[in-house]
Write a structure and sequence with these properties.
With 698 residues, this protein is an alpha+beta fold. It is 35% helix and 28% strand. The chain has a six-stranded antiparallel β-sheet with strand order 8-7-6-11-10-9, with helices on both faces. Mean pLDDT is 82; it is low at 4-8 and 352-357.
Length: 698
């Protein structure tokens, strides 16, 4: 315990007969050591510090051997010798003195070395003082600092663990936090066990490390003689401070853990609102006993873990309920559709990265329709809660019902919008409805504020198909009855239609068009199989994360099996909507071409146009146009135009310069057969065209 911090000293000329009063006042003794003569004079205070009477000291340092133990003397000699050899001006050291009664006293000395002109040491003048109280105070301060450091460390463990638990969503997350390097290791424990109370018993949910499980303890009764059971039963912790105490109090459990070298343990009840939900045990291999402060810290840790566990249990219950509701609202099964390969996927939104999932209003549906047709639906109700899921379920059922009634796609969407508005839920929804005739590949698509569909061609390319759209569903009260234009597109054999919600496309900070391009590239690079492609897309969405759920529907058109059935398409044309009339013409031309009746496409389109114009001009109402491919002894195309007027069409004479009055004449001339049928309060004018057999039915 050397001290090189001594300062120069000066002694009075008549020292030691008259000691320095300042030294005496501070209970310090002085000495003057003549190195040449080997004589060291000490004053009375120095004699007292060495517990020597004046007659017991003969001014020779060797005489102090009776008071300075050999080991201390050697250490002190080493300090002095090193200072003399090194040319130092001073030295300092702590050493022990054995008093007259045999006790040891800590002493401190400081010496100032005086040298001659050549640097040779001649004399040491110094002081000596009792340092027992000083070192005792220093030791006390060191112990206090150590305790405070230990307290801070343990408090830091609680804070770190609590902070980590704040991000735990599930019970397994809580267990992982406690068992990883920031949990169990920081707690200083060798092993951890945790159990939850279920139906009056404790079910073990965590134990570690591997190999520490005690057979028969996976489920235990609260009244059984186990420390966790006692902690739950009494709502108070159980501290086991030694192996002997463990073996005596819990012999059955002790026999199962003797190989873990356990020296103490703390079993903490996990209590929430005065009710035990479980218990946790921390087992130690390097400590015996627990201070009062350590016990308080462990109890505080148990309280923090209890709150996290309860939050995790509530979250899992809510998640199970939400997912159950979500699954109940989505179709349980997707029907097989002749001529198509189908795949659907749903992925719940991820909240807070990879922790937990939320419920949303995204949905998909597939609706078998008469004539070999099928309706494909994708939609997204605003919001991420059970209300959104409930609205989604109602909207899905309504869309299915309207489609199954035979309404054209535009009517299905318009009625669904009115229904959602009348629900008074303050929710809107985006939706896309595609009605496909798989025999021809013709699709009629209606879009209500939703994403455009994607089509992957047989050559592997994928492109976005722009479809005219209307406002989201549920806004009828603000904008009146909404109209939804119908777009027509065609799927060739082997083409795949992709419908999805925006959770598959949108990325934070990225443009929607960029997201659609990225999705198109991902689809193009994906597998041909629709199920493999669907898995690839959902996995990509999971890797990207995000706060929105994803619904996905893939429909791949196959080559028809055997004879191709007749097809049917339907379109609504309202007065004052030239775009609907133009779209109907495109639908007719596309369909008759796909049905192999291209040689009569002009005639069919002209007759249909005339029939529709008659309705718009003479009934002041809408026209419902239905196009059918009929099979039988001969192949025919049938055009039906339905209106709400019961007045039958009649011939009118056209003047020489007249442009009207020739409608029925035109129909009679171009069609093979035509007629009129009553339809409820209205009528249907129809025309049929015999077409040649298709040389390539595929």
């Amino acid at each position: 315990m050397a001290d090189r911090g001594a300062s120069p000293l000066s002694l009075p000329d008549d020292w030691p007969d008259h000691p320095d009063p300042i030294l005496a006042l501070n209970r310090m003794g002085g000495f003057d050591w003549d190195l040449d003569a080997g004589v060291m004079q000490m004053d009375a205070q120095a004699h007292e510090i060495f517990d020597l009477r004046p007659d017991e000291y003969d001014d020779h340092p060797e005489t102090l051997g009776s008071r300075v133990p050999p080991g201390e003397a050697r250490r002190l000699d080493t300090v002095v010798s090193q200072a003399l050899k090194a040319g130092s001006e001073n030295y300092g050291a702590y050493f022990r003195v054995r008093c007259r009664d045999g006790s040891l006293r800590w002493t401190h000395t400081q010496g100032y070395i005086r040298r001659d002109e050549s640097g040779r040491p001649r004399r040491i003048i110094g002081i000596v003082r009792d340092a027992t109280q000083e070192l005792r105070d220093t030791e006390a301060r060191r112990d206090q600092a150590l305790q405070e450091d230990n307290r801070r460390r343990q408090t830091n463990v609680v804070q770190l663990t609590t902070a980590a638990l704040a991000h735990a969503r599930t019970v397994q997350d809580v267990i992982d936090v406690l068992k990883d390097t920031h949990g169990l290791t920081h707690l200083g424990a060798t092993s951890l066990v945790m159990g939850l109370v279920e139906a009056g018993r404790i079910r073990l949910i965590a134990e570690g490390p591997a190999g520490s499980f005690v057979p028969g303890t996976d489920v235990t009764g609260i009244d059984e003689p186990y420390p966790m059971s006692e902690a739950v039963r009494t709502l108070s912790p159980r501290f086991i401070e030694s192996p002997e105490e463990f073996a005596e109090r819990y012999p059955g459990l002790w026999q199962g853990i003797t190989g873990l070298d356990i020296t103490s343990a703390a079993y903490l009840p996990l209590i929430v609102q005065a009710c035990p939900i479980g218990a946790m045990g921390l087992l130690y291999s390097d400590r015996r006993g627990f201070t009062a402060e350590e016990r308080n810290i462990l109890v505080a840790l148990g309280s923090s873990i209890s709150q996290s566990l309860q939050r995790a249990m509530f979250y899992e219950q809510e998640t199970d309920l939400a997912q159950g509701l979500q699954q109940a609202m989505l179709p349980r099964t997707i029907p097989s559709v002749p001529g198509a390969d189908l795949a659907v996927r749903y992925r719940a939104a991820t909240i807070g990265g990879s922790f937990g999932r939320d419920i949303g209003g995204d949905w998909y549906d597939l609706i078998p329709l008469p004539g070999g047709r099928v309706g494909a639906v994708i939609g997204d109700v605003q919001g991420h809660d059970t209300h959104a899921a409930a609205v989604m379920g109602q909207l899905r059922i309504v869309l299915r019902a309207y489609a199954a009634e035979g309404h054209p796609p535009a009517t299905v969407m318009a009625r669904a919008s009115v229904f959602l508005d009348e629900l008074d839920t303050d929710r809107s929804a985006t939706c896309l409805y595609a009605e496909a005739d798989l025999s021809t590949g013709v699709l009629q698509v209606v879009r209500a504020g939703h994403l455009d569909p994607l089509v992957r061609r047989t050559d592997g390319s994928c492109r976005r198909v722009p479809v005219p759209g209307g406002l989201p569903l549920g806004l009828s009260a603000e904008f009146g009855r909404l109209d939804y234009p119908v777009g027509t597109m065609e799927l060739d054999t082997g083409d795949t239609l992709l419908l999805c919600t925006d959770g598959l496309v949108e990325r934070p900070g990225a443009d929607l068009d960029d997201g659609m391009e990225s999705l198109s590239a991902l689809v193009a690079a994906g597998p041909d199989d629709v199920h493999g492609l669907a898995d690839r897309l959902i996995d990509a969405a999971g890797e990207r994360g995000g706060g929105d759920d994803v619904a996905l529907l893939l429909l791949r058109r196959r080559a028809p099996d055997g004879a191709r059935p007749g097809g049917r398409l339907k379109q609504l044309v309202t007065p004052g909507d030239p775009e609907a009339l133009a779209e109907t013409r495109r639908m007719i031309r596309t369909a008759v071409g796909a049905w192999g009746a291209g040689e009569r496409a002009d005639e069919i389109e002209l007759v249909a146009d005339e029939m529709i114009t008659n309705v718009l001009m003479h009934t002041e109402g809408s026209a419902v146009v239905t196009l059918r491919a009929l099979t039988g002894s001969e192949r025919r195309v049938r055009v039906e135009v339905e209106d709400s007027s019961s007045a039958l069409p009649r011939r009118r004479e056209a003047g020489e310069s007249g442009v009207s009055g020739r409608g029925l004449l035109l129909i009679e001339t171009l069609t093979d057969v035509w007629g009129v049928e009553a339809r409820g309060g209205g009528k249907c004018v129809w025309s049929e065209f015999v077409v040649a057999e298709d040389p390539d039915p595929a």
